[in-house]
Fold:
Amino acid sequence: MAWQNHLALRAKRPNLYHLATVVILCSVFYIAGIWMNTRGGVANLAGTECATTQLQNTTAAQALDFETHHSAVDLPLAPLSPARASPFPACPVSLSEYTPCEDAKRSLKFDRGMLVYRERHCPESGEVLKCRVPAPKGYTTPFRWPESRDSVWYANVPHRELTVEKAVQNWVRFEGKRFRFPGGGTMFPRGADAYIDEIGKLINLKDGSVRTAIDTGCGVASWGAYLLSRNILTVSFAPRDTHEAQVQFALERGVPALIGVLASIRLPYPSRAFDMAHCSRCLIPWGKYDGLYLIEVDRILRPGGYWILSGPPINWKSHWKGWNRTVEDLRREQSGIEAVARNLCWKKLVQKDDLAVWQKPTNHVHCQLNRKVFKNPPFCQRKDPDQAWYTKLEKCITPLPEVGHVKDIAGGMLTKWPERLTSVPPRIMRGSVKGITAKIFREDTDEWKKRVAYYKGFDGNLAVPGRFRNILDMNSHLGGFAAALFKDPLWVMNIVPVEAEINSLGVIYERGLIGTYQNWCEAMSTYPRTYDFIHGDSVFTLYKDRCEMENILLEMDRILRPGGTVILRDDVDMVVKIQSIIQRLDWDSRIVDHELGPHHTQKIVWAVKKYWTAPAATDTDQTGSETSS
Structure:
């Protein structure tokens, strides 16, 4: 029996040695794994094919720990069925300028009266394209601002029609491989600078009281382009019509613009948004339909704002022969405009040569009294003045906020630019924005300064002045993201989704910034390749269960330039789903920690759209394919 116990003890000893060895090795690998998984820094995104769009690590970024500790490696990808896992195909080359909600063929189904057919008419859910819109063959990264104001690559907007149609008016010239924009216009053949100087002699454009402007029927947006040097930010709009590509030219030049038309619905801006409105031979029938279109301009003008008109019928005595119209016709048109302006209680400040300027009253004290004389238009009753998404135009005056004294400014006085950017907007001071106080506004402004600094830490391109020009913020809230970037040579189109709990677009305009309303279940009223950089805060949480995530990301792909950058912040579960769809768009991307650290419930998706263009159109189907340049 003794010898049996001895043999059993000897048999157990090797097992103890093996167990100890396994424990030691596991401990070593565990410690090594922790060390490997906590190294600092964010790696450059791999695979970016255009040298100008490679993501760069700055010295500051290398000093920070941007490694995601529940990182892209740790986060599970959303499960994909085999049918949905494949990349989205390229759209046909013929759709390289596709604007889903302003499609020429679809528009023919709608009424031509009052230009209704040129309004937004979006595809039904079953008609939405599930493909990536290609850039045309030869597409080149646009010129940087300010050179882009005067030059656009022909390959990017291959349309020469305006160089012929508007040759005498000095809009645009074709030279070699590029278009040149001399700054001319129908009513300012000496150039937009000289034209704006003439306006500056009639109203003060230098003291910061005029900051936001709107140009109706903008042409190639030279008026807005040259106002930028005067710190005046202009939204230019024009329909997609026979003047092919005029808004597209504006955007390629680095000037804010949208496809739009004054027809039967309100413009997508809040009331009291703009300091100045402008029409230079814009062909809008201001005196028709009982002054309906001037009534809409009145809604979006701030109290004391200006309306500037040049072209027919102004100074018709000097131009009637060249305009090929009768004296009586032009006299009747001007009389009609003057009558509508009086009924709106506007004051005509001056008419000098080819320019006329009216001013909206600073309050409606006298206007309410004179309704006894001017019965029409009446004041609107109980309709939200800021509701402007597919909202029908009405023949009534949008009432201004009440005042305590005849000399008070309705809604409150705006601070002059640039102090206006960070001053508490009057809408917030008056308590008219639900849940937003002056304290919350200031904290939001400070928070976005920190967030943008964090972005610039891991995205070296955003830190380079001039690298990005056209920027879109998909869910702007109070405009803090744009405000944090105002010193850079760029502009931000601030979007307030119509589904947002708080309609804050009026606050954004009171800060001296610009923006528009948008439903992200539909396409935006802009051309493909509009934006260099797209930012979104909690966009996909907002639209959860409202529409398909992939449709929103495909729309982002359509309006983002090749080589453009995207930064999206959202809850971690949503970020994982976003990342899985981005893989199907063939963007380079990674997940980055929230600025407050790895344990925050939000994460950030940082992505770059690969640089690709359509091949030369040779096949009958003209389908795009990825071609590196």
The longest strand covers residues 560-571. The radius of gyration is 29 Å. Confidence is low (pLDDT under 50) at residues 1-14, 31-44, 46-84, 619-623. DSSP finds 18 helices and 17 strands in the chain.
